[in-house]
Each structure stands twice: as C-alpha cells, then as structure tokens.
Amino acid sequence: MLSVAMCLIAVFHLTTDRCLGSEFLIVKHFESPFGEGVGDLTYNDDGYLYATAKSLLKYGDRIYKIDPENGTYVDFFKHPSEPSNELKYITSCNGTIYVDHYPQVLNHVIYKVYPGDDVWTTFFEPENPGYGGIACDGSNLIIAEEDYLYAISLITQEETGRKKFITIDTYEGMTWDGAYLWALTTNDTLQKIDAGRIVEERALPAALKKCRGLAYDGEYFWTYVSALLSPYSQQIVKLKPVEELCPAEIIYGENSPEVAVLKYFRDAVLNKTPEGREVIKLYYELSPAIAAVLQGDETLVSGIRALVDNFLPLPMSERN
Fold first, then answer.
1. Are 238 and 26 in contact, with CB atoms under 8 Å apart?
2. Which of 3.10.450.40, 1.10.760.10, 3.40.250.10, 2.120.10.30 is the CATH number of 24-242?
C-alpha cells in the first residue's frame, strides 16, 4: 500500500519546472540589541542592518544601526524635530535609508535619511497611509497601499506606476532581491511578487512565529520573531533559502524523458479537472517531505522507480 501511494505521489509532478517546496535554513540569530521589539528592518550597502522599534511608549522616533556579524547595537539616528514620530516601515536603496512615518492622526511622511551624516529630509508625502511595508528596486520606492502597489521615482518623487494588487494576506514587511519584490505575510510566509502578481510562496521554518520586518542582503533574508512561545522569541534571524528537487526528479533525473512524460500527464490530464488540480495541490504540500525521505536512500528510490516504470508509456530504449 505504501509503495502504491509513493508511486502515485511521484506521478503528480508540479506545474512549474521546479518544486514549490523549498525551505529556509536558520544560519544566525541574536536578540534585539536595543532592548525593544523590532518594527521593521533593512540591509544597507554599508554592511549594517537598520531597524525601527516596535514600541508604543518610547523610541518610536529612532532608527537603530546593528552589526549583522555579531548582533551588537552600533548607533541610532533620531529625527531632530518631531519627538512624536512613529517610524514604522524602512528600506535601504543606493546607500540611503527611507523610513515611513506612520502617525496616529496626520502628517504621514516618508523620510530620506543619510546615515553617514544623520541628515533627514522629507522624500514623499503619500495621500494615504501605507500597509505592509516599503521596498526599493534601485530606481523607485515601492509602497503597498490597500489594493495597490505603486512606485515613486527616487529622482523626481513622482509616481511612475501603480498596479492593482489582490491578496487576502496582510503584510509585515517587504524587500527587493534585485529582481523581485518579496513580502512577509502575517502567517509567516514569504510571497514573491512580479508585476503585481504573486508567483511563489515560501513558508518560514515552523519555529518562527509572528515574524515582523523583512530584509535581504544579497544572499540571505532577515526577519524578527515576536512570538513569545517561539524558541527564537524576540530575536533577529538570518535565513538562507534552500531549493529542493522534486521527488520525480530525484527518482529519474532532472531532465529525463520520464520526468517529461510525467509533466505532460500533469498538464494534459490532471490540470484539466477540479479533481486533478486538487491532486496537484496535494503534491505541492507533500513534495518537500517526500523529497527529504528519498534523498540519500537509493534502495527506496530504486524500488519506486521500478514501480512507476510500469505506468510510463516509454520504450525501454528511452529509459535511463
């Protein structure tokens, strides 16, 4: 029975060339070095993390500078004239910090801050408060506002584009990886966004609960864990994305004719009916665990390969 079930799961290949199943390895973690919860964080070209504080009582007008190598507090920057500031979302672009002032009533502003000089200037005044974070693609500041993602030119401070964005999730931070926008949802999932469309989702490790803030340093993601019951509670964590092969690719090889047949069956048969699409969805959910079992177990892989061979319409000359 187990062999048959494993055989069927192997047939149900993904609707993309790679599995959606991917994970993150926690490669570093340290407590918030400035004694307060983190609101949002970003990684700057100078090699430091910059963070806002999640506090209702104090320190809401400061940006904290953190050494990511050892997690130590380095410095802070405080707005010179508005002690009531509640700085919330933050991003870095071309060595400059942009931070979202999110007050309870009026004066919603995005500030531009030069860390080396501690100089604050008003960059942009949105008509409505942003929701979920800000990010920068190198030329534009990207802002989430209810049902839209819109871009503001770093040079002209004028809107350069707006895309209707439909999602049922609430965001707790955004960042740019050099090619795509990433957003952190309140259910601890990273969504990869291209032109206003969610093209990929990756769940954070189960031990990370109620994460807040998102940064990317060119290789790793960073976030803050706020849940009291998490083993990483009140800590900033560094995450390495790790891709996994699909089970069918482990069994037959990434570019094998068998995998090509399985993909055809997926697209031409399973994807044509609601029941088939449910099977594909189930495969999405189970493939990371199945791949983890298969990797390194040649006896199990050989047994499943022999079983699945009976179902594949391939001549012996084309089999691996």
1. yes
2. 2.120.10.30
